[in-house]
Here is the input.
Amino acid sequence: MAKKPRTAIIPTREDDYPEWYQQVIKAADMAENSDVRGCMVIKPWGYAIWENIQRNLDQMFKETGHRNAYFPIFIPKSFFEKEAEHVEGFAKECAVVTHSRLEDDGTGKLKVAGELTEPYIVRPTSETIIGASFARWVQSYRDLPLLINQWANVVRWELRTRLFLRTAEFLWQEGHTVHATKEEAEEETIKMLGVYAKFAREYLAIPVIEGEKTEGERFPGAVNTYTIEAMMQDKKALQAGTSHFLGQNFAQASDIKFQNKSGEVQYAWTTSWGVSTRLIGALIMAHSDDNGLVLPPKVAPEHIIFIPIYKNEQDREKVIDYIGNIITDIKPLRYHDEHIRYFVDDRDMTNSEKSWHWIKKGAPLRIEIGPRDIENNSVFIGRRDKDAKDKQSLSSKDFVAQLISILDEIQSNIFNRALEFRKENTKQIDDKDEFYKFFTPKDIEKPEIHGGFANSHWCGSNDCEDAIKSELKVTIRCMPNNAELEDGNCIYCNKPSKKRVIFAKSY
Ligand SMILES: [Zn+2]
Here is the structure.
């Protein structure tokens, strides 16, 4: 039997996917669990990825006419109670502030005091508190559309948490917009879903399916929820971003009214949309391998890691000088309007330790430079989209000249690999037995990676959706926006259906 190759991450994806995920985060030093249960500490390498996501998305929001603002973290309970479905949807996961003060209890410990007359909810999402401001800001049709975004933290009390994927506190952005007509608000909802899809594909290198959620999976209080769904390497789906058409539900709850051109006062139409630090979880699970994190260059904290190789101080000076000259040459370059991000790792460690350190962190390019490379006027390149041992020597001049195209090539290789994986694991299924087989692991005790996306017919009934969910833990991820009309039969009840939907197990 062939010996399994050694991997930097143990266990491998195949052996234990959830544990592999935790180990990748640990090895890349991205985040850790905190002393507060359910909350994470995002370390510099993880936070730098978030900053890159944030900066680029923010630019896309501004290019589509949105402006940033900031609203309170606390929501008065009475505000929250205004939209019935909304309350019901979030009630079970709210952190509530009931007191305002700490007092000495006489034994040197502190006790809570100053009970509030009205408790505050720590925002799980901000529709209701932002709605109160919008009611003041919007008076006339001239104030519309109102296009606002907020970058913030939110809290949803979760006890079963997983770094980046599900934590009690997480970072996100929430867009909130107000429009004069239903059509405009619907158009905005779809437009922002498109922004998310473009960002996922072009920056995160994650192919996504754009579609509408079923009634059962909608945002509490929304008329329609749209989503982008991505496939992770364990073949489960991850909802990577959502955009909601809220109709007039929240406008009525918060009293957002305006005077139209003919002088009549009417309720406005609103939307909201968001993505969170969950995108980092998606990034890890879509691309990383058994040697650790793999990062698309566009969101990587560093594009290039320079690893100087030398045996004595004299060589060190030469090598550092040589690297300095290369850096001078790459500084004027721009990679998709951004500077080249680089780091010179001159720590006192072996070359191989350093190399593996950066492989595990997912740095796109490792450049090793020793006295021999200086003699040949060359650089030695390792790429994270290739095998760790697959290194290439290039003249330093060619390296600088080709750098941008090498980064682009890494970015597209990572995307194409994810796309290929999704294609391989998406199946058109029309037979109920086959559907059940597809979503049932062979080993029930220790389920192997199984399933994928099933593209199947659904009659539209909640009962069929619920039955599949309870029997298989499989949900309808979305009704794809580009699905073609086609006669078929519901995968569960066999009644006629006009469209296929995406079924999958999910995060
Ligand atoms: Zn059915």
